[in-house]
Amino acid sequence: MREKITRALEDYLEYILMMELGGKEARTNELAQGLGVSPPSVVEAIKRLEERGLVNHENYGAIKLTSKGRSLAEKIYRKHKILVDFLKDVLRVKPEVAEEEGCSIEHSLSEETVNKLAILKEFLKELPQPFRNELSKKLEG
Predict the structure, then answer these.
(1) Which fold is adopted by the domain 78-140?
(2) pLDDT tens per residue across span 38-95
(3) Boundaries of every domain in the chain
(4) What is the 3-state secondary structure (H, E, C) of the chain?
């Protein structure tokens, strides 16, 4: 069974992954600024992630995901993206609200539930246009 990590540590992994995908190196100060925490909080979190084998970090150097860390970060990011897209595209929630709420609930929902939301989203996209229009009216109404 996989050791459960906290929501905060999941946020660190996801943010490091997003930085790497953007071609940037994750460093303590950038993580602190991006996550809205203090540099000492980042140092403590990175130690905990290192202990779990999820990141590598040399003092004053870049923080890099291990293969295990990248795999977990990609799962977290995938859930985040599916939830935000579902909230925006299906429920017509404002993008900034969808982002905030998607980030919040990604930690609570199982992968199974998120996968079923993705299936539902795809199913709804295949409905005939009049039904999609009616759904949009009800959601905006």
Answers:
(1) Diphtheria Toxin Repressor; domain 2 (1.10.60)
(2) 999 999 999 999 999 999 998 888 999 999 999 999 999 999 999 999 999 999 999 9
(3) 7-65, 78-140
(4) CCCCCCHHHHHHHHHHHHHHHCCCCECHHHHHHHHCCCHHHHHHHHHHHHHCCCEEECCCCCEEECHHHHHHHHHHHHHHHHHHHHHHHHCCCCHHHHHHHHHHHCCCCCHHHHHHHHHHHHHHHCCCHHHHHHHHHHHHC
